[in-house]
Amino acid sequence: MEITLDELNKTIMVMRTKGLLSEALVLAKQGLLVALENGNYGHGLDLYYQKILIHHAFGDTLSMVNLIHEYETYCQKYGTAKDIMHFYLVMSLIYDLVGVREKTVDMTKKSIAYATELKDLVMLVRCHNNLCYLEVENGRYAEAMQAGRLARAYNKELAKTQPELAKLQGIRINNNMADVYILEGAFDTGQTLLDRTLRSELVQNHKREKVAALFGYGFLYEKQQKLEEAVAFYKQAIDLAKSYGDKPILKKVMRMLLNVLYELDRRDEIFEVQRDYIELTEKMNADNLLQQVMYIEFNQQKEKLEKKALYDPLTGVLNRSFLETELTEWMRRAQHSQLFVGVIVLDIDYFKMFNDRYGHLFGDRVLQLLATGLRDFLRKQDAEIIRYGGDEFIICIHNKDRAYINRLVMDLHAYMLTLVFEHENESYSIKVSMGACINDQKNYDFKYLFEQADRSLYKAKNNGRMNYVISGL
Fold it and tell me: Is the domain of 233 the same as that of 113?
């Protein structure tokens, strides 16, 4: 590719902002293939996220659902906090489209929690705006107003660095806030917000946002009992939604239109819209979207239960149970393939000082940073990371090249020393000591290799800490 994956990801975001969705989707598909082929899973996850959001803009729920299992698998294996945040947002969108309201709110709030921790302005705007819409649907207008105002405040900050994206987000916020004002009887304010949307040049390239504004006008006039005007705007929204195949919003507007037609007693039109509504519902039911989403959720819960016994809840890496239940098979495969095995033991120098001085929550975050660093560095390696206890971690790695493992240990230690923890506007370097033992393709006894690696760790400590020692058989 002529541009890097990072540049490609930024280009796709710009294209999405401009409404060039078809072109952006082509680039996202091509970039994803390249990223996965090259083992660049960080950018791959970004491109999965981009693809799913583009399908959402098209109203293509089926494609979103078809992508979500792959996306989740890569998130679990390679994802950072940012990717988990994105995953929760995507799941909130899917649950919304299939009508599982409680799950939609739950996923949105989880995404907000991550966005707050990461100080991600884009996500804070989007998630609070989504929450505004959801609170309207739940009839909680005060909470919807609060969420909308938060979204607007964050969007004001976003405009300082990403003005074009902030304009698009502003349109989305206005559409949702208009609904809140209309429901509270502030019709002039609601109309002013909708006017801003339809006057915007940007909205002409964003059909989904324009449909939402047209729907808003229909809703505005319906609440004012101006039913003829409501019908006209609902029909405009339906025609536009049909033009790009947005089934979920089409179904919603049709339902609203039917309510008004019943009040007007337009029997011929009622029959026609009902027929289209039933046909659309049957098509959506044929996709079995709700069933597929619930199946995904079942698998998520099943996998969580299966992994719970093996994974450390604080750091997300394996725990000691792995050593007792799975490691024997791991070593057997290495021996069968005649691979060299390296066992690495490491811990944080003066970790007790962190806990005593700053508290255990601070210490927990240091451990999480260390675990993330280990995952990031070893992402492409055939390695297992285990939290042995406290601040002590074990890494088991195999490779056909003994010298490769030796270099990897040295590079890993150097990488660990680059980790920096930010807390209350101060930076703290994380210092680690490390001991390793590399076998001789004869001895595959983990207990013996671990004991040798542990002795090497204590030698590193005695050599002044912030050091490593490698022993071989």
Answer: yes
